[in-house]
UniProtKB/TrEMBL annotation:
<dbReference type="Pfam" id="PF07687">
    <property type="entry name" value="M20_dimer"/>
</dbReference>
<protein>
    <submittedName>
        <fullName>Amidohydrolase</fullName>
    </submittedName>
</protein>
<dbReference type="InterPro" id="IPR036264">
    <property type="entry name" value="Bact_exopeptidase_dim_dom"/>
</dbReference>
<dbReference type="InterPro" id="IPR002933">
    <property type="entry name" value="Peptidase_M20"/>
</dbReference>
<dbReference type="InterPro" id="IPR017439">
    <property type="entry name" value="Amidohydrolase"/>
</dbReference>
<feature type="region of interest" description="Disordered">
    <location>
        <begin position="455"/>
        <end position="483"/>
    </location>
</feature>
<feature type="region of interest" description="Disordered">
    <location>
        <begin position="413"/>
        <end position="443"/>
    </location>
</feature>
<dbReference type="Pfam" id="PF01546">
    <property type="entry name" value="Peptidase_M20"/>
</dbReference>
<feature type="domain" description="Peptidase M20 dimerisation">
    <location>
        <begin position="195"/>
        <end position="287"/>
    </location>
</feature>
<dbReference type="InterPro" id="IPR011650">
    <property type="entry name" value="Peptidase_M20_dimer"/>
</dbReference>
<feature type="compositionally biased region" description="Low complexity">
    <location>
        <begin position="455"/>
        <end position="471"/>
    </location>
</feature>
């Protein structure tokens, strides 16, 4: 693997190890929920104190945005760390367990926060070499409250004075992915997550005389089954959708026609096109059946989080960078997206970037049997803090170095290639080994998201015997890793 400028190793992180793990434990002991995380915010501000950062805090939420100015001119890149916990009673048995009843860092966001703090320390130590700026985005409210969206509205993507050119986030997994294994993929990596509440209003009456009433129950039942048929007739078999009715309620007695009935469903899709199509079809089918039955219907369709889509070039760059850092056997391309959801999707709708999954299963624990993210028993190994910090710092530094080398005219880096005869793509590939992979990924994506993904998966498995096993596991890992 050729050296990528700006790479950080575990050795670089060692001087910060005790501080970062202490921070992780402190965050874990005092977890907070939603958009208002004053204790976590104070801990982050304390951990960043003394670094040469421009710090602002959120107004609509307790976020922290920190900007590190590099010693050389260049664009800005962004690193995201989410800070919120879950309403879960901890049963992990760790020494630094939650002291707040019913609240737990069960999704590992305490590690993400500490890792972004670690990346700030690593990058600040080499500030003079950095060819541009780094924005550190500490966000509350990932677990369903759209904290990233609020931070975007408050200007985080332009915090350095110009729009960031790339954004990266990691997510740790307490199951399936062994400690130190990193996975990502071009295109869709996580699903869109929607929720639907349908309320059918009829006219109540005696069960013996339905002709004198308007029964909402048959309409409700038809809707539930028709939605499943609609899914199979609407979604491409290779760009699927999932609709699950998880709750249905009507009536109170066997011989009474109720006034109303209701059901709730979750919808998961993997491409913006299918997301739009399914959303429209749900409303059409439900309204059509209501009309057919002469009942009134209210449809509350909430598009919670959009599809999380990795930019193909950024995902290829991130994978190449991480392979250079941890070795090719410990970083692989995930063969398929997973059905969890993330509000980093809002960031990736605005700027190119990549979302990576990092294994945090403690050594000695069977990754296949370890409790998953969100489980009360989930344990994330402390060492994943250092791993994630070096991954994030390396991505930022290497991406700025790449932007800097891309900005140099081809003639300057390669005197043999006359600028008027050599195609841009050829000189780019010659000056940067990662760009070959990136351009391949771009063309795969351009020819169709699904076929690009499939070919990437096959070649990933073929070229790396370990990735077959690991790829099975990733879907399980990340399915619990997000909303
Ligand atoms: Zn989660
Ligand atoms: Zn999470």
């Amino acid at each position: 693997m050729p050296t990528i400028p700006g790479m950080f190793t575990a050795l670089d992180a060692l001087p910060f190890a005790d501080r970062l793990i202490s921070l992780r434990h402190a965050l874990h002991r005092e977890p907070e929920l939603g958009l208002d995380l004053p204790l976590s915010q104070a801990k982050v501000l304390g951990a960043l104190a003394g670094l040469p950062l421009e710090i602002t805090i959120g107004t609509g939420l307790t976020s922290v945005t920190a900007v590190l100015r590099g010693g050389r001119p260049g664009p800005a890149v962004l690193l995201r760390g989410d800070m919120d916990a879950l309403p879960v009673q901890e049963e992990s048995g760790v020494a630094y367990a939650s002291t707040i009843p019913g609240v737990m860092h069960a999704c590992g966001h305490d590690i993400h926060t500490s890792a972004v703090v670690g990346a700030a320390h690593l990058l600040a130590a080499r500030r003079a070499e950095l060819a541009g700026d780094v924005v550190f985005m500490f966000q509350p409210g990932e677990e369903g409250q759209r904290g990233a969206k609020v931070m975007i509205e408050e200007g985080v993507l332009d915090a350095a004075g110009s729009r960031v050119v790339a954004a990266y986030a990691i997510h740790v997994a307490s199951t399936m992915l062994p400690l130190g294994v990193v996975a990502t993929r071009p295109g869709t990596i996580l699903a869109a997550s929607d929720s639907v509440t349908v309320t059918v209003h009829g006219k109540g009456g005696h069960g013996s005389s339905p002709h004198l009433a308007v029964d909402p129950v048959p309409a409700l039942c038809e809707m539930v089954t028709a939605l499943q048929t609609m899914i199979t007739r609407t979604a491409d078999a290779f760009d699927p959708a999932v609709l699950t009715v998880g709750s249905i309620h009507a009536g109170s007695a066997f011989n009474v026609i109720p006034e109303m009935g209701t059901f709730q469903a979750t919808v998961r899709t993997f491409s913006p096109g299918t997301h739009r199509k399914i959303q429209a079809a749900v409303k059409r089918v439900v309204q059509g059946i209501a009309d057919a039955h002469g009942v009134r219907v209210e449809i509350d369709y909430q598009a919670n989080y959009p599809v999380t889509v990795n930019d193909p070039a950024e995902a290829a760059f991130a994978l190449a960078t991480v392979r250079g850092l941890v070795g090719p056997q410990r970083a692989f391309q995930a063969p398929q997206p997973v059905a969890g959801a993330e509000d980093f999707s809002f960031v990736l709708e605005q700027v190119p970037g990549a979302y990576l999954m990092v294994g945090a299963v403690p050594p000695g624990t069977d990754p296949g049997a370890a409790p998953m993210n969100h489980a009360p028993q989930a344990v994330f190994d402390d060492r994943s803090v250092l791993e994630a910090a070096t991954v994030l710092a390396s991505l930022a530094a290497a991406r700025l170095a790449k932007a800097s080398s891309d900005a140099v005219p081809a003639a300057a880096t390669n005197p043999a290639a006359a600028p008027d005869t050599a195609p841009d793509t050829a000189s780019g590939a010659a000056s940067n080994p990662a760009s070959g992979a990136a351009s391949g990924a771009v063309s795969g994506a351009a020819s169709g998201a699904v076929s690009g993904a499939a070919s990437g998966a096959v070649s990933g498995v073929a070229s790396n015997p370990a990735s077959g096993a690991a790829s099975d596991t990733v879907s399980g890992a990340a399915s619990g890793a997000a909303e």
